[in-house]
Amino acid sequence: MVPGSSTILAQLRRGSVEYCVLALLQGGPAYGLDIGARLGRDGVLMNGDGTLYPLLSRLRKQGLVETHWQESPSGPPRRYYALTDDGRAQLAEFHQVWHVFRDAVDDTLEGRTHD
Amino acid sequence: MTDPTVSASHPSAAVGRYLDDLARMLHDVDPVERADVLGSVREYVDDSVRELAHPATEDDYGEILTRLGRPEQVVADVVDGGLVTPATARPTPAAAAGAPTAPGPAARSRLGEVALGLGVGALVLCLVPLVGAGLAIGAIVVGVLALRSGTASRGLAGTGIGLAVVGLLVSILAIVGLFTFRAAGTVVEESSIPAPTAPAN
């Protein structure tokens, strides 16, 4: 059976979305719903918000992000997520691997070969 | 059964049901991971409610749950994304430590049948030296394993052991009889040889 586009997307998200979260936090701390809104804007990186908070929780347990509570200008305090040094290092590592991986996939899909 | 730590009295009945459904669908997941997912989803709901400029209504909760996605979709996503590990995919502590594992349920349920088969073979071939005895010993060993593993086919295992014991006894008697017969034959043959006579001087 040929997998549909949603299945392919789900497979591609696995192992890459968490790095997208880390990448979003490079610009500074953000709170959960904001991260979700930015990630899920086009429906490519996230399929609903159901996995967002479990993912953030795991990143926190892995020590890749840390959290703190911060007053909100429009309401009660929010939990903000920020990159840790480990998270930054992991993201840099992913960045390097991703470029190699992406180029290899592009070359293969477009029929380019390395001689 | 629902998770008591989660289904407990959420202000919204719809959210309570949603969390109960999630907990039920995640029953196969490590309890710590399950509690983490449920706590995270609850936190998402609470954060979303805090963003409202008015007290949340059931309609608001319904909209929040829609953004989360259907419980089965959330479960599929957290499993696919490796955020939880179903029990079926987790190595047992013994396996993780590299220790030999006990036979699985399917293997255990067959031990009784194997013991019975070996027992029947031992009885049928009891008069064939060594083969019958070997089958009998095998049947007894497998039968004892079957009984100790708590398999459902204990009756088969017991019957197999019984047949094996009978076959072993017959086999032993046959071997003893064979040796006795041969020994007696040797004595008869020796006694039938005429004694050498002394040469006449």
Description:
The complex is a heterodimer of chains A (115) and B (201). Chain A has 115 residues and is an alpha+beta fold. In chain A, 52% of the residues lie in helices and 17% in strands. Chain A contains five helices and three strands. Chain A has helices at 5-13, 17-24, 32-39, 52-61, 85-109; strands at 30-31, 65-72, 75-83. Chain A has a three-stranded antiparallel beta sheet with strand order 1-3-2. In chain A, a hairpin with a 2-residue loop joins strand 2 (65-72) and strand 3 (75-83). The longest helix of chain A is centred in the last third of the chain and has 25 residues, at 85-109. The mean pLDDT of chain A is 91. By secondary structure, chain B is mostly helical. Helix content of chain B is 67%, strand content 0%. Chain B contains eight helices and no strands. Chain B has helices at residues 13-25, 31-50, 58-68, 71-80, 93-96, 105-124, 131-148, 154-192. In chain B, helix 1 (13-25) crosses helix 4, helix 6 runs antiparallel to helix 7 (131-148) and helix 6 (105-124) packs parallel to helix 8 (154-192). The longest helix of chain B has 39 residues, at 154-192. The radius of gyration of chain B is 36 Å and the shape is rod-shaped. Mean pLDDT of chain B is 77; it is low at 1-8. Chain A binds chain B through residues 10, 13-15, 17, 31-33, 47-58, 74-76, 78-79, and chain B through 36-37, 39-41, 43-44, 47-48, 50-51, 67-69, 73-74, 77-78, 80-84.
